[in-house]
Predict the structure of Small-conductance mechanosensitive ion channel-like protein.
Amino acid sequence: MRFRRAWERSGFRLDSPMFFYELVKWFFIVVFLMAMTNILGLDQVTEFLRTVVYYLPNVIVAAVVLLIGILVAKFLEDVVRASVKAAGLVSANFLGALTKWAIFIFTLLIALNQLKVAEDIIRIVIIGVVAAGSIALGLAFGMGGVKHAESMIGDLRKRIEE
């Protein structure tokens, strides 16, 4: 029951019997078409339909990943927003939205990877984003935290010498 409420809050209407009815109906239609094209000797069409049937589990897994990602993103947006407000910081809405969109984008990339859509491009984009973030953090710490880093290293050196 909690899953149904969470699903409906995400903006989708959940009609489980109708969903499974449509899924089973289209599965049997495609299997019937495969048998029919095989009997008629249309081997290329049969092979195409077979690849469609074999691809369906990837579509289902990608849809489930997207659903879970949307639910987790919404939940963590609320958690981050409430935590930041409780801490007394002013950027609660921004950090909540940033959390939601970061999770949603990574979820979308995972779903596209499951569907085998431009795997190399997705991998390059992820590596680029991680590298850019690492460089940005390194520059921010290096340029802005020189004094603080010097004091931390000095304190560490004193502790080691004692």
Remarks:
- The chain has two domains: 2-117, 119-162.
- Residues 2-117 form one domain.
- The CA atoms of residues 59 and 135 lie 36 Å apart.
